[in-house]
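Need tokens for this chain, all 85 residues.
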Amino acid sequence: MSTSTISVDEFQALEQKVLRAVEIVKREREARAAAEAQVASLNEQLESQLTAQIAVEAQLSTLSKERDAVRQRVEKMLEQMDELL
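Here are the structure tokens for all 85 residues:
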């Protein structure tokens, strides 16, 4: 046998290594796709929660303004009542 030829056993061993490498690459691609899908899902959830938080903050601001307006009206009514007494 010359040095440029490989035995059947060597070829089969090489073939097994290639098949294992293909499987590893396939698993890694699947894992990457799953991770990317999970990141996209988490980004959507985060965006949704941020939108909800902004809405709640806006509502709290509106309620605070309304509370201040009611407080001012009550104070004016109390002042008017004091003037009557």
